[in-house]
Each structure stands twice: as structure tokens, then as C-alpha cells.
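Notes to self after the call with IL:
- keep both proteins in one doc
- input above output, always
- annotate only the second one for now

Protein 1:
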Amino acid sequence: MQIKDKIIVVTGAGSGIGRALVERFMAEGARHVIAADINADNAAKTAQDFGCTAMTANVGRDADVKQLIERTEDECGPIDLFCSNAGLGAGASEQSPDDEWQISWDVNVMSHVYAARHLIPRMIERGHGYFLNTASAAGLLNQVGGAAYGVTKHAAIGFGEWIAMTYKHKGIKVSMLCPQAVRTAMTANTEDAGVSAAAADGMIEPEAVAQSVIDGLAEESFLILPHPQVIDYMQRKTENYDRWIGGMNKFHRILTGEK
């Protein structure tokens, strides 16, 4: 996957990783980039700064994602790469309110489902298409202090796997972007145990994530890991699950001060 001359949609493009992706895709010579965000002003600012098109969408709603796809293809042409990047952190534990769990599910999981639902038939008809879904290292490992985040990011990885194994022979490709801590609004509270856990290997800038994306898309890697040490953590987890759980419990107690 090379970015030059491609038509690309990026959700959550008003800030953070999404904004950095838009900037880099435009620099790489994309034909059209759609900067989509739930915040119309933020989407417009990204589009103004980098010379692309702004659209507004709440990706937790099927109708919004459908409209985003239809409008893009009507006005710009067939989507080559859909970057389902928008996400949020809520639902710290099992005691968190149902609405925090539900919005986590809607944005962190169902947004990917909606994009696939409305794009895969079009991509199959064309014989090709690519999804870049932003998950998190939490989807491969888990998240101290973030129950709903860890659970829904696991689900996002599972859905990406399902798309890849079901439609690979139809020309559909998937990459899952799984960084640890990135300097965005989501990680601004450095006193939070979840942020501290994610930042244990350092906080990287969104622009570094965008570079990892360019490299990963060129290789068409299923996992794109801006923090390469995540693969080692995955291997330790699968080698001895009980030992890994014990280590993560110790890490949890260190970060939270629990006895």
C-alpha cells in the first residue's frame, strides 16, 4: 500500500493520531483525504491546515458512518484506505456506569463494524480495499486501570482478524495500529494509573505513529507497532499466561499503591 494518489478517510482526525495521519498522508501525495471528526470545528481546522476535506461524523452511529462513506465516494471517488481511528477511554472498572461501557463499545468496536459493513461490499466489487483500524497495545496485552478500554480494544483486534481471515482472498487488507502511550488529549492526565502504565516505555509523538503507519502500510503488516517491544510482551504473555497475570497484578499494585 502506497499512499500516493489514494483516496483516504481518517476518523478522529481533529486531533492526536488522526490529525498526524492526515498531515502525513497529504505529504505523501494522497489524491483526497477526508478529515472526519465528531467535532466539526476540529475537523475544519485539520482540513484548513493541510488542504484536505472536512466532514463531521459520530462513528459510534451506523448512520453517520454510512453517510461518511457515501458522501466521500459520491464527491471524491472510491475509498482506497479507510482509517477507523477515532477512539476513547472510559469505564475504569466493572463498577463504571453502563453508559461508559456502552460508549466504549460503540466507538472502540462498532465503529469498525460499521465501516466494514458499508465498505466491504463496495471493495469486493472493485477487487481491493484497505482498512487501517486504530486499536492499542491494550488490545494485545490489556490496560491497568481501564477495564472497558482493554476489553473493547481486544474486541477491535478480534474483529480486524476476522475481516482479514474472511476477505483476504477478495482483495481486502487490514492493518491494526497498536501503540502504547502517545502524546494526545487521551494521555494528558499523567497521574492516571492507566496512562502511567501505557507510558512505562515512554510517550511518543503522534508524528512518530504516523511514520510507523507509513512503514507498516508499505509492508502490509497486520500489526503496526510503534512501540516494537510490544511484540516481546505478547510473546511473554502467551508463553506463560499465569506468570504474565501475576506480573500484571504486581504492576497494577505498584501503580495504584494497593496492598
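Protein 2 (the one to annotate):
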Amino acid sequence: MNDKTLAVQRMQDYIESHLTETVTLADLAGAARFSPWYAARMFKELTGLAPADYIRRLRLSKSALRLRDEQVKVIDVACDLGFESVDGYQRAFRREFGCNPKEYALRPIPLPLFTAYGVKFRELWKKERADMANEKSVFIQVMEKPTRKVVIKRGIAAADYFAYCEEVGCDVWGVLTSMKSLCGEPVCLWLPEQYRKPGTSEYVQGVEVPTDYDGPVPENFDVINLPAAAYLMFQSEPFAEEDYCVAIDSLQAAMDKYEPSVIGYRWDDANPRIQLEPRGERGYIELRAVKKV
């Protein structure tokens, strides 16, 4: 990994750990170990944003999550995340998301939150096809999943989505979507052997719920318990909806080639591999469990 990538990652890490404080270009230059001018130039080159814009968008997105999930006053969120005034925060929030933060807190709506992908975990692969010259990016991020339950519907012998739908039907997803999920949406999983029952499929669909979940379980569904684990999240570029199969194949090929030891991890195949619903506007996403080397 080159010095420029590592320098920008250090700046991103500094911003993340000092997000509620005043972050100056001098602070970032110190983290990068380069001059302020060159540090700012590198940062924009690799992240696509000037440091000030990156910090503003990250703070606004963090504030939106607090307004959605906590009973907290707008003025407290503004102060906690380093905005100089509540009026300035409200204007910035409206410019970024098109709504007032107080209105959003009362009735949350989907927002285009900024995701601060670490440049250290971003890789680029070329799709090796004669009829495709364009490069496609795959973004990689380490994330933690807590101890949880998963309400699942098992198939018979399915190892992928299409076989699963043939075995159990495609209406399972609607049932799962109606249940509140820890991650905000249903998931598909490839189950390791210890989570499977005789005569049931490797591939299942389910919804992640808290460990203390005691709500109803739909008929013919099962519940499994999963431990806390670290995952590498692989996310493709957005794609045209009709190209979802290409997007899936391309990302899975890239994931198969990826060597997690370059960032200090190894694969942990005792935990399920996870697939999210392929949506063209956000790209295709899979998660594979890892452990520290």
C-alpha cells in the first residue's frame, strides 16, 4: 500500500476520532505527516472531497442518525457534533438532505447519508471481459455485527437465490420485510454446516433481530443465534437494474481474489456469508466474516 493511501487513511481515522472537536488542516497535516497544502490535495484526490466538505457531510450524517434513533434536542445534536450555531446546523442539514432536522426527528424519512469509506479498504479491479473496457470499483469496509438472532426460512438444497425461489417461492422476502430488522432490511445468508439441519439448504433468507427478541416467528420459519463478528463489506458501484447478474458475478469474483491479510485479517468461515438485496442505486453488497490475524 503506497504512502499516499496510508496518509489519507490516517487523516480519515483522525477525523473519525475527533469528529466532535474542531478539526483544522494543520491537525490533518500532522496526522498525514505531510505539509497542509499537500495533505489537502491528497485527501481530495483519493476521497473526492475537500477535507472541510468531507467533515461537514460526515457530521451531518452522524447527526441524522442521532435524530432518528435518540430522543435528543436539535440544539444538543448541533453542539455535540461541532456546529457553531443551531441556525447554521439547520441550514446545512436542509441543504444536504432537503428537510429540516426537527421535522426529520419527528418523522424520519430515507436520507442520502454520507458513508466515509476508508481509502485503505478500497480496491479496484478490472473486469476481464473483451467487450467491457471500463474499470469497475469495489469498495471494502470493515464492520462489526453484534450477537443476534436471525429468523430464517430454510430451503431444501439451494445454494443461490434462483434455486431458493424455486424451492420456497419468492414471497418469503415480503414476510421478512414486514419485520423490523437490526440492519434495516432482510438478508440472505450462506449457512456454514453447524447452522444447517439435515436435508435443508445452504442458502436461506432471514431477518436479523436482537438477542432478546420474543416476537412472533412465522410458521415454518426457524431462529438461529449468531455471535458477534467482524465482517468485510464488499460493495460494487451502482448499476443498471437489468445488469444485476453481472454486478453480482463481478463482485463475487473480486471477493474471491481478495486477500484480507493485507489489512491484518483472515477469513472466518464459521460465520455465515451475507448478501443484501441487489439495488442498482447503491450497488451490490456482500459481507464475509473475518478475524484479526
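Annotation: The longest strand covers residues 135-145. Residues 123-134 have pLDDT under 50 and may be disordered.
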